[in-house]
Amino acid sequence: MDFIEPMLARLVAQLPAGAAWLYELKLDGYRALVMKKRGRTTVFSRRGKNMNAPFPTIASAFSFLPDDTIVDGEVVVLDDQGKPSFSDLQHSRFTPDALYFYAFDLLAYRGRDLRKLPLVERRTLLEDDALKGMRDPVRLSAVFDASPNQLIAAAKKTGLEGVIAKRANSRYESGERSGAWVKYKTNQGQELVIGGYKPAPNGFDYLLVGYYEGKDLIFIAKIRNGFTPALRREVARNFPRLRTSQCPFANLPEPASARRGEAITAEVMPKIQWLRPKLVAQIEFTEWTKGNHLRHSRFIALRDDKNARAVRKEYS
Known about the structure:
The protein is built from 5 helices and 18 strands. By secondary structure, it is mainly β.
């Protein structure tokens, strides 16, 4: 019994349909595993970090869980309209009673490894056995008997992040993004690595962000929008420990014609303060351009639950 790397969903432009698939809402929060071992409950982030300190109410709420059991799910904060708010979660702008754990899979039960069982069997054990005694803030992530198009329309109407489809007979593939689980996003979003910033009196003018291709960090965007003064200060507090004189991006400098506005040319690069690529930001945008840039991008939050080296461009 130890931490198990979570199974991941592949981004798609269209959800599969049919009786072979189960559908859940995509919740905008922190992926987490809850493990009960020798009477002690531990909440793990998707990277295996102990999250009991930031989420003590979640850890204590699983006191009912049998020993040697591991539950997969999502930690979310619900706003006044009952919708998940990742921004509130990340910035701790919530009261304890707004924090919930939505369980959607069972990896181990009373010492038995369940990962080779079909998803439908794991869900049955989760609902009928493992979650007996469940109460708020622990909830079961619902499976919906509706078509993908109906669910996507409902998610868009209510402002939810998207829909997840999972093969009913899928095994639990730890750490894999095999396509047995897929996700459809109602908005365009991407995790990106911060590799530098342009200093300004208010902290910074913009962030330089990118994703990894193999060992190379590829610069793709400058992020100016989405910052309140408090959020700008919060982000900038991470910079001093990461400052470096070395540009971490493999594709800089770029030509002056590379993008609208200020391109990161050889002349501009001395004005940039580079950072060791450790910080991961959640970015929203309207679309990818043909030049592999982001249109109308804005900063949402830092993601301390994601490994910078694992950030890749998500293709649909």
